[in-house]
Design goal:
The protein is an alpha/beta fold. The chain contains 18 helices and ten strands. The strands form two sheets. The protein has an eight-stranded parallel sheet with strand order 3-10-9-8-7-6-5-4. The protein has a two-stranded antiparallel ribbon with strand order 1-2.
Length: about 425
């Protein structure tokens, strides 16, 4: 599917025509207002988890400010009446250079969570990277997408059997690639979550990929070290939430089985693996035929190693500023990564993208595509599936118009010469 030459103009016309009829945009077009309105609708815990970053959140801010270092130099009289935003990535052609980044625990902002996002992405032909920490099983998301493109993001747990099961399920679900997140072998120091002493996984939220997995169900039968916990009204409320979030019917039968509590205990004990090394990637290669991309690469040497180890792509990411406070921004890291890769494998940019100009600048510095994260979650919080769709349509229109106004008819004409 290729974007039409007038899609950006049509989106503008639609908004203005609706405005004339007294119908305002369903979600704010301004990304700052979008975040503000979505934040106001979220619970305090959801705001902390979705919007917050690590430490004093300097990485969060740098991800945005870094884009200001470069300025677009528009060129004139280049006949941009026909514009094509399509890209080729890992042998597939997509209508635009956008993918939806994996974001977990979307049930914090909307009950349909990942399924609503999947439907919106499918309607626009935008690949959706399913999260390991999804609120819905990957099979349910895949059914919602039909034949539309999707990838799977893998958190590498302490259980290799579970890793193998996840990627095999992803293959059966029609996922076209595996994106391995490397930067979350431990949780970062996330001050907003810590101030509220809140981790959604403790309530059984965001672990649907695990509770729906046959290997994980077997792992739940293994003993887990007992933890002494204070029994309070608050903890009892959390227990009720935990049991309700576990799949199946019958609250008391689930409670009596002990499975909901075992699921959380087992998840917390195995979900991350700080002992991972480059050599572990061989295991993944042995268990999937899908292309494998490494998500979280910020150093050129790690990009070169990715190529040496036979990886198929890189996602330049700092986890949206949620892991290492004071980390290099992804946009600052991008030129070094693209130079090291030298077009041998695709490079995607994640973290901080908020508008069409950001996308244009990333492509000009060598990215093949970008991942959109928090903005689509804000759309989900405000208006569910249609909110996600409207946010994505706005981003697509903004990018296409920016590209045309800069004097570029297609992606191949966007280059470093387009920037100062």
């Amino acid at each position: 599917m290729i974007a039409t030459s007038t899609s950006g103009l049509n989106r503008q016309k639609e908004i203005y025509t609706n405005g004339f009829a007294g119908i305002p945009p369903l979600v704010p077009v301004d990304p700052n207002v979008l975040e503000e309105k979505a934040a106001a609708k979220m619970s305090a815990r959801a705001r902390g988890y979705i919007i917050g970053g690590a430490g004093v959140e300097s990485t969060l801010r740098s991800n945005r400010s870094a884009f200001d270092q470069y300025k677009i130099i528009p060129r004139m009289l280049r006949n941009v009446s026909e514009r094509d935003t399509s890209v080729e990535l890992l042998g597939q052609k997509y209508a635009s250079p956008f993918l939806l980044a994996p974001i977990g625990v979307l049930e914090l902002v909307h009950p349909l969570a990942d399924v609503a996002v999947a439907k919106a992405a499918a309607s626009l032909g935008i690949p959706y990277i399913f999260s390991s920490q999804a609120s819905k099983p990957m099979e349910e998301m895949a059914r919602a997408m039909g034949n539309s493109p999707r990838w799977f993001q893998l958190y590498w747990s302490k259980s290799r059997d579970l890793v193998a099961s996840f990627v095999q399920r992803a293959e059966k679900c029609g996922c076209q690639a595996i994106a391995v997140t490397l930067d979350t072998t431990m949780l970062g120091w996330r001050t907003r979550d810590l101030d509220m002493a809140y981790l959604p996984f403790m309530e059984g939220r965001g672990i649907a990929q695990y509770t729906s997995d046959p290997v994980f169900q077997k792992l739940m039968d293994e003993p887990v070290p007992a933890e002494k916990r204070n029994v309070t009204a608050h903890s009892l409320s959390g227990l009720i939430t935990l049991v309700n979030n576990y799949p199946g019917s019958g609250f008391f039968s689930k409670l009596k089985s002990g499975r909901p509590i075992k699921a959380v205990q087992k998840f917390v004990s195995i979900y991350s693996n700080p002992a991972l090394t480059w050599d572990d990637l061989k295991f993944l290669r042995e268990h999937t035929k899908l292309p494998v991309l490494l998500k979280g690469v910020l150093h050129p040497d790690d990009a070169r190693k990715a190529i040496d180890y036979g990886m198929n792509g890189i996602i330049v990411s700092n986890h949206g500023g949620r892991q290492v406070d004071g980390s290099i921004s992804t946009f600052d890291a991008l030129p070094g990564i693209t130079a090291a890769v030298n077009k041998q494998i695709p490079v995607l940019l994640d973290s901080g993208v908020r508008g069409g100009a950001d996308v244009f600048k990333a492509l000009a510095l060598g990215a093949n595509a970008v991942c959109i994260g928090r903005p689509y979650v804000y759309g989900l919080a405000l208006a569910g599936e249609e909110g996600v769709r409207q946010v994505l349509r706005n981003l697509m229109a903004d990018f296409e118009l920016t590209m045309g106004l800069a004097g570029c008819k297609n992606i191949s004409e966007i280059s470093k010469d387009s920037l100062a």
